[in-house]
Design brief:
It is a single chain. The chain is mainly alpha-helical. The strands form two sheets. The protein has a two-stranded antiparallel sheet. It has a two-stranded antiparallel sheet with strand order 3-4. Strand 3 and strand 4 form a beta hairpin. Helix 22 crosses helix 25, helix 24 packs parallel to helix 27 and helix 24 crosses helix 28. The protein is globular, with a radius of gyration of 32 Å. It starts with a helix and ends with a helix. About 45% of the residues are buried.
């Protein structure tokens, strides 16, 4: 690996001079060729004949060709050196920027790559005890280390590729000019990586390290990824991946070797995904070679790959291997549609028409001793959709035709399909239910963002809003679809989706004055299915916190809008905004009781602990509400960010943190601890903040009256929501 001091201090000027010198050579060789033709060949032609002349002219013709070859080689070497200089200069610039950032943020970067936090605040007991400081500093440190590693990987791959290319003699004849040298480092690195993937026999640890370096440095590069995929081929790609992930029986891998293979899975999956999208903007349409590569992957899905033929059965099917890789990176939308249809077709034509995937995808297929991958390929495909929002929206709103019968994708996945349970089927010991992966796809499809993307909100399109309504109507009409284990693994994702559409939720409850507006297209949610939907979803602690934060954020922003506006009846307008948030809180309070006392699926501690990991929805909810109010999806700026996020998170903590585990306390919980008083108080605080930051002039007496009115509206909503939820659930 290129070292930090070497890259930091490297003088790249000689390399730039060499590139310029080589770039100038073709013109000189061409001039020599013209002079040779004019002064030698043309001078002799017509004045010399016979056998000796014929032989001489043949030799002179070869010499002329060598001038051309010399010019061609010089041009290509010049381009290669220029490309290498560009790579090294870019890496060096990124390193300098990173080192400056680390220094300014009080992190010390050592020559060997270690990074130490030397923030002087650690020496202050008061400062170091500040909530969130440790997490904030750790997050920054991890970011610096990750980016530093990436810069060094790119520089190392470029250095080794340039060295290899300059030593290469493709003609195999050192006495002749080389007309087939590389012109880009991408081509060198793609050749090196594909050679490793096409190598016969298992790769050594050093070769796996080399492959990881090449893929990690170039996995998001369309040119490299395309060349690598085309040169490796779809079937060879899956065969070698299967072999690497399934070492021979009796092989003991160290932790470091397992970590390398897991890294390889991520790098290879991202690289292939990039390859499938490399022709998205190509003039003239899709690249035929990439289309062939994708078709080869689809075709290979139908066959079984045996990693060790003498130890049969040992390995996975093409679908299982492709889905394992597919859980990483961005993949082509059309390919994902074709792949999903093929996967569902295989299941429908398999055991019990898709109702027994355990048997269909299980024995004799087995994971290797690495346990990397998943026996159920649908889980990896769902995570692929979860990372590709456009593809997930299209797939979950469309259907497939199998044996003349239309199969609705969402219905099949949500209602009809049996999802095998266990970490062997999902590939994730922490989430042994495939419904968790289905939830990722649904989040992506309705939000327009990857399920694990914490970036800026994306305005809801009509297609995504309509899908959200379909999900609410389906599960609200049949809550068992998200109630019983293992289906309850859907709830955290459904909670995020509810938080995402909080404006639509609150508007459907009560929006007489039309104050609350959706973030983009309106989902037109129906209260008849929305209330049982929230009731079911809210039993999950993470979902409970996400919905609570988003609801309070939405209420706070629309109160801000009302306060800034010129409503003739401010009290009525504020009550109209406060009431829906109260209803949501009431439904959730009762749902929490159900989770603790009826389902026994969660405890107070689970709900309280969820606050620590779920606070992102205060900021995200504010962002969407501000976007809806202003008509933009811009980040939150100005005073709103300063007071609202902090206050809303504090309200959520107060509302969520309770102790009702003792059955004797339940009577009190249903009246007070469930949130009746808390939602009133939080609404009153929100309206005071809204008025204060709006610039509106109001006496203390009038503000107290307004706050009391809003508090009562929120409490009324809470009572209505809790009462409705209890009656529906027979309590």
């Amino acid at each position: 690996m290129v070292s930090i001091p070497y890259l930091d201090k490297a003088d790249l000027a000689p390399l730039a001079d060499a590139a310029a010198s080589w770039a100038a050579l073709p013109a000189k060789y061409e001039a020599l060729q013209r002079e040779f033709e004019q002064r030698v060949i043309n001078h002799l032609r017509g004045h010399w004949d016979g056998d000796a002349a014929d032989s001489a002219f043949v030799t002179m013709g070869k010499a002329r060709t060598e001038y051309e070859n010399a010019a061609t080689e010089a041009e290509r070497i010049g381009k290669l050196l220029q490309d290498a200089h560009g790579e090294f200069a870019a890496s060096q610039k990124q390193l300098h920027t990173l080192l400056d950032e680390a220094r300014n943020d009080h992190y010390k970067v050592y020559d060997d790559g270690r990074v130490e936090d030397v923030d002087p605040r650690w020496d202050s007991p008061t400062a170091s005890a500040s909530p969130g400081l440790a997490e904030e500093r750790k997050k920054k440190l991890d970011s610096i280390v990750s980016r530093l590693t990436r810069v060094l990987e790119v520089a190392t791959a470029a250095d080794e590729a340039a060295s290899s290319a300059l030593e290469r003699d493709a003609n195999g004849d050192s006495q002749s000019f080389n007309t087939s040298v590389y012109t880009t480092l991408d081509s060198v690195e793609a050749d090196q990586a594909s050679a490793l993937m096409n190598k016969k026999g298992r790769l050594s640890d050093a070769e796996i390290t080399k492959l990881n370096l090449l893929l990690s440095a170039n996995k998001n590069d369309p040119e490299f990824s395309r060349e690598f995929a085309v040169k490796t081929g779809g079937e060879n790609m899956l065969s070698k991946y299967n072999e690497l992930m399934s070492p021979p029986a009796g092989t003991t891998l160290s932790k470091a070797q397992l970590a390398q293979l897991k890294q390889l899975k991520a790098n290879l999956g991202t690289t292939i995904g990039t390859a499938t999208t490399s022709d998205d903007h190509r003039k003239g349409g899709p690249d035929p070679e990439i289309t062939k590569f994708q078709n080869d992957l689809l075709k290979a899905g139908q066959r079984d790959f045996n990693a060790n033929p003498t130890e049969s059965p040992y390995g996975l099917s093409g679908y299982q291997l492709t889905s394992s890789l597919m859980s990483e990176g961005k993949w082509d939308r059309d390919f994902l549609q074709d792949y999903g249809d093929a996967l569902i077709t295989a299941e429908k034509n398999g055991a019990n028409g898709g109702q027994n995937p355990d048997a269909y995808w299980g024995y004799p297929r087995t994971l290797g001793t690495t346990n990397i991958g998943a026996l159920d390929p649908m889980t990896g495909f769902m995570d692929a959709l979860g990372h590709n929002p456009d593809a997930s929206t299209e797939f979950l709103t469309s259907d497939a035709t199998i044996d003349g019968e239309k199969v609705d994708h969402l219905d099949y996945l949500l209602k009809d399909r049996h999802w095998p349970e266990g970490p062997g089927y999902t590939g994730d010991p922490a989430n042994p239910s495939g419904y968790n992966n289905l939830g990722h796809a649904m989040e992506s499809a309705t939000s327009g963002r990857a399920f694990d993307d914490d970036g800026a909100p994306v305005k809801h399109t009509p297609e995504r809003a309509a899908l959200m309504k379909e999900v609410v109507d389906t599960i609200g009409g049949d809550p068992s679809l998200a109630s019983d284990s293992p289906r309850d693994a859907l709830r955290d994702s459904l909670g995020n989706m509810t938080a995402e559409y909080m404006a639509d939720v609150q508007a459907s409850i009560a929006n007489e004055q039309g104050t609350i507006k959706p973030f983009g297209a309106d989902a037109h949610l129906d209260m008849g299915t929305l209330e049982p939907f929230i009731s079911t979803v809210g039993r999950d602690p993470d979902a409970y916190v996400a919905i609570t934060e988003a609801s309070q954020a939405n209420t706070a922003i629309w109160m801000q809008e009302v306060a800034k506006g010129g409503s003739s009846d401010l009290n009525a307008a504020m009550e109209n905004v406060a009431y829906p948030g109260g209803v949501v809180a009431g439904i959730l309070s009762d749902s929490r009781d159900q989770a603790i006392f009826e389902e026994h699926s969660a405890s107070d501690k689970d709900f309280n602990d969820a606050v620590a990991t779920g606070d992102k929805w205060a900021g995200r909810g504010l962002g969407m509400a501000v976007g809806a109010a202003t008509g933009t999806a811009a980040p939150i700026v100005g005073t709103i960010a300063g007071w609202a996020v902090e206050d809303i998170q504090a309200m959520v903590v107060e509302q969520v943190q309770k102790d009702t585990t003792d059955e004797a306390k339940r009577e009190a919980a249903t009246k007070y601890a469930e949130g009746w008083a808390a939602v009133g108080k939080s609404s009153a605080e929100s309206v005071r903040e809204a008025v204060e930051h709006s610039g509106r002039q109001m006496t203390d007496e009038n503000l107290n009256v307004l706050a009391g009115s809003v508090e009562q509206a929120a409490k009324s909503g809470h009572a209505a929501g809790a009462t409705w939820n209890s009656s529906v659930n027979g309590r």
